[in-house]
Structure prediction request, 229 residues.
Amino acid sequence: GAVVSQHPSRVICKSGTSVKIECRSLDFQATTMFWYRQFPKQSLMLMATSNEGSKATYEQGVEKDKFLINHASLTLSTLTVTSAHPEDSSFYICSARDIAGGPSGELFFGEGSRLTVL
Amino acid sequence: KQEVTQIPAALSVPEGENLVLNCSFTDSAIYNLQWFRQDPGKGLTSLLLIQSSQREQTSGRLNASLDKSSGRSTLYIAASQPGDSATYLCAVMDSSYKLIFGSGTRLLVRP
Prediction:
């Protein structure tokens, strides 16, 4: 099946610093990628939709200036958590949709990135 | 607004039992429904994808059904094994092509 790679898998940073998480589709092209956040023992909550070559669409309640998303190519989207605070500590997961599958095609998920802000 | 609910929230069964996990959604206007498995601290593994025009999908010991009109799906696991222990997530793709997740069922299969 299609592979989505996330990096880093774990990151620890100090409060106030910025952290960048990468999401790559390894064997397919993705015009659309999605970023989710998951708190302990809770489900995945959609943060934003990343569109190649255009601005991301953020869900209600998600600060776009805090969670910067860049989708510069058909295989890479990045999420930058700016001025991170302890409450941003969470598990961030990306997913990507294969262009060939159309808009309602299957989504493939990365392994997730655990962010801990001290 | 689409809402996805999973029942039960947690389930503990002895090895070998057949079990059913339930998922319900409020808006029947969906493109597809997916069942995922998530191990602790890990990402998601896709188990089964059911398109809105389909009634069920099968993969090995897993069978998922979809009744779109009533907003329900079930995941049936036959002859459960300790290795099946994980959290199972149900997600529907809504009319805006977004995947909306349920809160999951935490399954423990006891040896």
